[in-house]
Amino acid sequence: MLIKSNGKALRRPVLSPDGKSLAVIAPDDRIHLINLSEAAQGRKFINGVKIIKSVRPFIRMCTVLRWSPEVMFTTSADDLDVLSSTTSECEFGNSWLLLSDTRRVIALSTELRNPRMMPTEDKEGIRSNILADYDLGSQNGKVGLLEFVFDHRHALVIFELGSLAAILSLSRPQRDEIPHVKFPDARSLARAPDSRYFALLRRDKAQDRVTVFHLDDNNMLSYKSFDCNTSDAQSVTWCPTGQPLLAICDSPAYGVKVSFVTAQGHALNQFDIGQSAFQWDHSFISSCQSEGVGLTYWSWRRASQSDDHLSLQVLANGGKQVLVRSQPINSRGARPRAQIVHPDSIDGSRTLVWLESTKATADNLTEFTRQTDAFEIAQTSPATTDSRSQPQSDAQAPAQDPKQIDIIEPNCTQTIVATRLRSSPRMLFLWRSHDTTHPHAVIVFRSGIRQIHFHPYLPHVLTILTSSKYPRIYAWCQPTVPPIMGLIPIDTTSSTNFCGAWLPGCVSRADSSRPNSTTAGDGQRCPFLFTSNTAFEVGYLSSDQGQVVFESILHRPSQRDGDLTLDMEADESTTEIIDTPSRPSKHRPGESESEVVKKARFNMREDSEKNLPDGSLHEQAGYGRAW
């Protein structure tokens, strides 16, 4: 018997911390682990976590699924050449999953190399992958946040009621409670990138406090608490490059204020961000000093996938100003990369304005028309704004603020910045960092924008997901033409709440010239993950003869290893192929089904190739090429 997946799930699949594996709660009440890194190389398999029959009703009701921080799979060159259906080399027991229905927490091992942990019959006496089982009760309300901390043997639980959190040991009966946690969600938590430390934002006796926790080599818990120089702190953020630095963001009601401290509580006043950071435009000085116009967006992130020495600070205030600045780890100063002021009106003679038609036919999925007139930016009631857009800000502004900039996304080289105003959810602003006197382009979609994702390596490739009930994905890859669009072959019968993400962890660094390699060019081609609440699909985006093609990596013939069929007595942790959703792809006459690769075609203007800019920069950016 094979473990099969038809691209459907009971809950939205969850990506592992290294971005190489996908955990799926399947409709058969099992948990499937799909190695996307192997699928990108043509080796397809699914690992299955054994769940005894008595626990399966709990699995069906789970609303929280989390990976442990340890890396799942190795990706060395030796592993790529192993002729096997799996190359899992993780140390036994180090990769765990946490599941919760907000009242109960279960920890599962994802180590599947021992067939004894994978019985084929559902017998109550047979050992399963369950390693810990906590009944949290109801006295503190439901679980507001559940995350692994330190390693795979400890979990942090923050409850919705009582301002209470607890550190659970998953290897022994131990529970350490933490009182006075300020928020019952991710705003109160900051974790170091290596997970060895984490900080909690707390409030006791009208004073904001931060407590930093550490687990030493002897498994002894230690902590350090210190007061914050804030009036009403809204979030705490750990330095994304791993330094022991914390940023604490104050409420926008008290202006622009971000305080920096070390993990020991020492203030770093020279790093602090105040109102002066937004005073490059003197026309905004007086208005920005008014009450209530403070910091409405704050994010601290790595500058790129490959740079561990440079971080980006992304800020926005109530005056619709955006500041993107970079800071090296060995420097006290930050360098502005983009300084943006959103206008109240758009001049179509200076800005490329593309308006998507509200009509669509089978032959013409979408059409954008150029608008050259000047117009005011429409203000939409906040009640009608799509609230399911990507949560990029570490500090949330008040929900009633119509001037909030709720999406800010720089590309990998910080040369282009994409933004969205909460009051104009269908309008995407694209800015050139070196010239922000006016937007370079404004794209108005027929549906509200849900997510935007720049390619992790190609600076001019941007994907956009909207709140459309159809699985549309838009791609903007040329600076002077509108986006192109297509449909992802994914099941839409149960959910249309779509999300996406590039998968740089699945990019092959090996020699792409080896036979049957699925990487393109210099080996930097990056898969794209597309999910809903109940389905998923993964594949490559590329252009071919004026069209863009989506090529699934989960549904194609085996290219290297051959398919492995297992009988009932074999270890069911491997399988030969992954079936994808219910929309069958059409194939040409004479082409066998085994040769069909699932594709989605995008409309593209015939003159797009003629409009390609000259120069090596645009060639490197992937214009008209595989992404």
Summary of the model, kept short:
It comes from Cladophialophora carrionii. The protein is mostly beta strands and 627 residues long.
Structural class: mainly beta
Net shape:
globular
N- to C-terminal distance = 36 Å
Largest sheet: 9 strands, antiparallel
Radius of gyration: 25 Å
Within the largest sheet, what's the order of strands?
Answer: 32-33-34-35-40-39-38-37-36
Strand content: 25-35%
Mean pLDDT: 79
The percent range for helix content is under 10%
Low-confidence stretches: 72-92, 112-121, 511-522, 558-623
Q: How many strands appear in the DSSP assignment?
A: 40
The number of helical runs is: 5
Question: Describe it for me?
Answer:
By secondary structure, this protein is mainly beta. About 5% of the residues lie in helices and about 35% in strands. The protein is built from 5 helices and 40 strands. The strands form 9 sheets. Strands 32-33-34-35-40-39-38-37-36 form a 9-stranded antiparallel β-sheet, with no helix packed on it. A 6-stranded mixed β-sheet has the order 26-25-31-30-29-28, with no helix packed on it. Strands 1-2-3-4 form a 4-stranded antiparallel β-sheet. The longest helix is centred in the N-terminal third of the chain and has 6 residues, at about 55-60. This is WD40 domain protein.
